[in-house]
Task: inverse folding
């Protein structure tokens, strides 16, 4: 039972990070109906920037973290303005293909500047584990969970009460109606991509403090895509709940099934769960079903 609880806690923390990164997928899909296949590369570059600021320039972690968020927001704005804005009004498939090309471009840039070897963050959090009954929890897990929940709460309030958040929701529901009300859809797109880049970088920095960072960290973007689809690509609460489900199941599979079969199950489990649930609920757990009348 203690081992089960240990795995569940680890999976809960991992799932919270997945949920944060999945938020970027949901925001971009809600605003443009497109899937951003470069989300993993946003995560990778933001993580390497934070690592460089901390390791090479010896900037305190908190200051480096804030500078990384500023850099990531600027990168998201630049990508939207230069790469994706010309595709507004074009077929959605064109924008999706552009994000695939952007993924390769950003991945290549990361390889050129930082290589492919695994690098480890300098010690930021205490190494002394916290004891919750018989469960040992690393401080980095606790801080990761706190940071993710704070950010998810901030974004939830932002979308519900701020002028830009309301504009983003309006544009997601009906772009033509939003334009008729004087909302700048282009500005909404820019802010959406900036937020998507920021949440990816936060998730990457937290994961890097747990496991280190190398070029394979970009694959988290592909792993998180089932999280977003599972919860419903147009549902922010769905992304959060989907993240927790996938994180816990992945941790349990790694602890119980992988030792029996030689490993590899936890890597494919998110996709297996995704297929099974989509067979029952094609729009995800909380996705809106689209009905076309002719």
Result:
């Amino acid at each position: 039972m203690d081992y089960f609880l240990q795995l569940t806690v680890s999976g809960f923390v991992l799932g919270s990070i997945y949920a944060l990164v999945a938020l970027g997928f949901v925001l971009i899909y809600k605003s443009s109906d497109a899937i951003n296949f470069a989300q993993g590369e946003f995560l990778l570059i933001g993580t390497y920037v934070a690592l460089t600021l901390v390791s090479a320039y010896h900037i305190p972690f908190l200051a480096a973290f804030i500078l990384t968020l500023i850099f990531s927001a600027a990168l998201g704005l630049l990508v939207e303005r230069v790469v994706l804005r010309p595709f507004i009004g074009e077929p959605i498939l064109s924008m999706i293909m552009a994000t695939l090309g952007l993924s390769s471009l950003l991945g290549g840039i990361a390889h050129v500047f930082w290589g492919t070897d695994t690098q480890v963050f300098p010690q930021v959090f205490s190494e002394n584990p916290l004891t919750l009954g018989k469960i040992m929890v690393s401080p980095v897990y606790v801080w990761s969970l706190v940071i993710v929940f704070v950010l998810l709460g901030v974004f939830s309030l932002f979308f519900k009460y701020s002028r830009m958040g309301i504009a983003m929701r309006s544009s997601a529901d009906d772009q033509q109606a939003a334009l008729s009300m004087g909302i700048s859809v282009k500005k909404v797109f820019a802010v959406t991509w900036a937020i998507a880049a920021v949440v990816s970088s936060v998730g990457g920095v937290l994961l890097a403090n747990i496991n280190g960072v190398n070029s394979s960290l970009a694959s988290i973007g592909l792993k998180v895509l089932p999280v977003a689809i599972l919860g419903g690509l147009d549902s922010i609460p769905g992304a959060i709940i989907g993240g927790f489900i996938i994180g816990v199941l992945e941790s349990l599979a790694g602890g119980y099934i992988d030792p029996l079969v030689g490993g590899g199950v936890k890597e494919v489990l998110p996709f297996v769960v995704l297929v099974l649930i989509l067979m029952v609920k094609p729009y995800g757990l909380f996705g809106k079903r689209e009905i076309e009348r002719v």
Notes: The mean pLDDT is 86. The beta strands are 130-132, 135-137.
